[in-house]
């Protein structure tokens, strides 16, 4: 199969600077927006997209404060809704009225929330090891604590005004792998190519230090809200779950499956034939580590002719 090369790097203007993105395929082809995971960047999709059908136009964006995108203005925190609105801004900049979304982990939840809020704009939604809305039946008691920590963290970072720390590329890689155990060394290096800037004495991280733990920035919802949100979806949805995936990152051996089971069962019962669930062997970064394991199912889903019903 002939592989598809990267065609361009993009810089899309936003009020606080720009959103960086990279694009593959013809501008005339059906558009697919690719959304990376927490603290990752658009390089997440470099091994997967060349294995996907060439008759689509793929754009992978860096969320604000990640990769090569501008940081938010001082005083403005990173909340889940901000990332959702970035998707809307990118669609407007690219003049896309209707498109498909491919999201890994945090990117899946951003794409999922976008699909609930702007259902008429999304044709297909592909979730790589992510539910479309973050549901955690064990976190309800912690939500206010997370909100408080998020505010305090932003104030601390702004008050410290420390310059970005410069370390050797090797130190940076070891730190990154310690915090992202599923990535693997080769893919860790690849993400850091876009995620760091070269200095005279080493490298420094591009990402905004105001972005801290994901639970400070996820919108975690109750079971009732989860069901209410997904009732608004018009897209067809493919949920690819890695057997040693997201829950194994946060909880040893994927021990607590209550949220994932409730989420999957709710999607099946609400969306019926518009929902497809596939399990693949691998960890949370299977789309980078073994992209061939997910490429065929994504390709079939993208090429399936059943379009979502148009809004009345």
Strand content: 15-25%
Query: What is the CA–CA distance across the termini?
Result: 40 Å
Q: What is the topology, as strand order, of the major beta sheet?
A: 1-2-4-3-5-6-11-12
Assembly state of the chains shown: single chain
SSE string, helices as H and strands as E: EEEEHEHEEHHHEEEHEHHEHH
Contiguous uncertain segments of 5+ residues: none
Mean pLDDT: 91
Largest sheet: 8 strands, mixed
Shape: globular
Structural class: alpha/beta
Radius of gyration: 19 Å
Q: Helix fraction?
A: 25-40%
The counted number of beta strands is 12
Helix segment count?
A: 10
Annotate the secondary structure layout.
Blueprint: E1 6-14, E2 17-24, E3 30-35, E4 56-61, H1 80-93, E5 99-104, H2 106-117, E6 122-128, E7 134-135, H3 143-160, H4 169-179, H5 185-195, E8 196-199, E9 202-205, E10 220-221, H6 223-230, E11 236-244, H7 246-250, H8 258-271, E12 275-283, H9 286-289, H10 292-303
Parallel strand pairs: 3-4, 3-5, 5-6, 6-11, 7-10, 11-12
Antiparallel strand pairs: 1-2, 2-4, 8-9
Helix pairs in contact: 1-2, 4-5, 6-8
Please characterize this protein's 3D structure.
There is one protein chain. The chain has 312 residues and is of the alpha/beta class. It has helices at residues 80-93, 106-117, 143-160, 169-179, 185-195, 223-230, 246-250, 258-271, 286-289, 292-303, and strands spanning 6-14, 17-24, 30-35, 56-61, 99-104, 122-128, 134-135, 196-199, 202-205, 220-221, 236-244, 275-283. The longest helix has 18 residues, at 143-160.
């Amino acid at each position: 199969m002939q592989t598809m090369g990267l065609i361009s790097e993009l810089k899309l203007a936003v009020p606080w600077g720009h959103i960086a993105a990279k694009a593959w395929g013809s501008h005339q082809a059906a558009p697919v927006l690719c959304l990376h995971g927490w603290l990752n960047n658009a390089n997440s999709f470099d091994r997967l997209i060349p294995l996907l059908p060439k008759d689509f136009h793929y754009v992978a964006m860096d969320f604000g404060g990640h990769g090569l995108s501008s940081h938010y203005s001082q005083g403005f925190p990173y909340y889940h809704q901000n990332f959702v609105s970035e998707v809307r801004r990118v669609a407007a900049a690219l003049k896309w009225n209707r498109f498909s979304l491919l999201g890994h982990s945090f990117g899946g939840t951003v794409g999922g929330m976008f699909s609930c809020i702007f259902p008429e704009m999304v044709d297909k939604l592909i979730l790589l090891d992510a539910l479309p809305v973050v549901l955690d039946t064990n976190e309800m008691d912690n939500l206010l604590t997370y909100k408080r920590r998020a505010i305090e963290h932003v104030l601390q970072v702004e008050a410290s005004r420390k310059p970005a720390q410069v370390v050797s590329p090797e130190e940076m890689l070891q730190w990154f792998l310690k915090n992202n155990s599923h990535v693997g060394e080769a893919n860790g290096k690849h993400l850091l190519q876009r995620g760091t800037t070269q200095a005279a004495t080493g490298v420094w991280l591009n990402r905004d230090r105001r972005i801290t733990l994901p639970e400070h920035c996820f919108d975690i919802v109750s079971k009732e809200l989860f069901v209410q949100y997904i009732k608004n979806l018009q897209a067809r949805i493919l949920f690819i779950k890695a057997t040693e995936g997201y829950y194994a990152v946060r909880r040893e051996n994927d021990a607590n499956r209550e949220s994932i089971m409730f989420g999957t069962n709710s999607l099946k019962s609400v969306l019926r034939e518009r929902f497809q669930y596939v399990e693949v062997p691998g960890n949370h970064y299977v789309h980078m580590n073994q992209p061939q394991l997910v490429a065929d199912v994504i390709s079939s889903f993208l090429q399936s002719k059943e379009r979502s019903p148009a809004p009345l």
